[in-house]
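Model: Ready when you are.
Researcher: Fold this.
Model:
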Amino acid sequence: MASNVPPNVIARTAALLRAVGAAEPDGGSTTELARATQLARPTAHRLLTSLADEGFLDRDAASGRWTLGPEMYLLGSAAAAGRYDITDQARRVVHTLSAVSGESAFLSARRGDETVCLLREDGSFPLRSHVLYEGIRFPLGVASAGMVILAHLPDREIVDYLKRTDLQPEWGPEHSPEALTRRIDATRETGYAVNPALLVEGSWGIGAAVFDRTGKPAWALSLTGVETRFRPERHKELGTLLLEQAHILTGLLRPER
């Protein structure tokens, strides 16, 4: 049976939930959340109130700020227990990456058109890049994790994403559709993605995809560090290490037969 809920209502509601999540732990005011989602304040307030009525949000009576509610925790726990929370399996892999390379190692997960960093472990080398940290989000195609996930999507999904997404205003000309297409091709050739200091000068990254039970690129392992540690002659060494550990983690996530 077809739904009677207009798609734009679902999109607006989802945008508000993401905005509240991004504002945790202090939460956000109605005005702040309306601004973050580009909604009219009355519309935002109406949707926020409806979400609170259903238990998906809480509102502090004194400050009026909105935070995630108990239903979000229950649903999130149910989902994480099954398909999405792989942090327990990934910790040993992330540790191996940081210990062997000496660089900062990360696990990121795909969330729609973004990646979110879930785990970080710093290596022994004293100079580090601080671009990535747990909880930070980037669009697909930005940073090595977002690039390697994008590159391993089917061609039709890549074409659709590049048609509806304009990364240049925020991330610069190296994130134009043409530039992204070239980097996708390079990533597919080697299997791993290289971010040559496109976010912060002097901060490099290399990433490899981790696949879910259906073979989709759902996560990424990555290493970041200063430019002197990511010279071209070391790319293959780090890329091979990432591919090996990504293969191990992908195997851990597949059901036993």
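Researcher: Now this one.
Model:
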Amino acid sequence: MTARIAVLIGSTRPTRICADIAGWTRDVLSQDSALSYQLLDLAEVDLPFLDEPRMPALGHYQHEHTRAWSRTVRVFDGFLFVFPQYNWGYPGVLKNAMDFLYEEWKGRPATFLCYGNHGGSAAAEPFQRVLRGLHMTVLDTHVEAVIGPSDIDADWQLIDAAATLDPVRGQLADIDSQFRDALGGSMGQRLR
């Protein structure tokens, strides 16, 4: 079986560029990888604000939307979260989606690509703490992509995703290698 890595689109804003960035990222990672990189869009998951009465660590989900989210997350072997920096943090919709679950994240390799005018460093730091708090296996490499006003058109869309993001291509190769190493064991051997 091929290991599946979710490239999770962590913004639901109607004018978002996150889906384009995640799609480009998935395409680049898939070019020479034995891993299967697949898009997972929080806009399609459509979770409400956290409404489970019990802590997610207990695993007793009352609502079907939580059980469905749990089933979705469980099919993936690792996660690459893609998200913008909003007001010196990361999107609330992403934190909400993560807060619904606990065991489903635990032990899974994870990293992220964040972006913003300054690369998203203010979002990167708290997000890494959340990954560690969920006991995910945090990869050494993550991406902070600079996307400035000259990269966006009048409709707030990326003019040329490939040209804007090409400087991070080498980091994505490192991420792919680190995912393979983190998956380790017999799966890691098969993927080499």
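Researcher: Key takeaway?
Model: DSSP finds eight helices and six strands in the chain.
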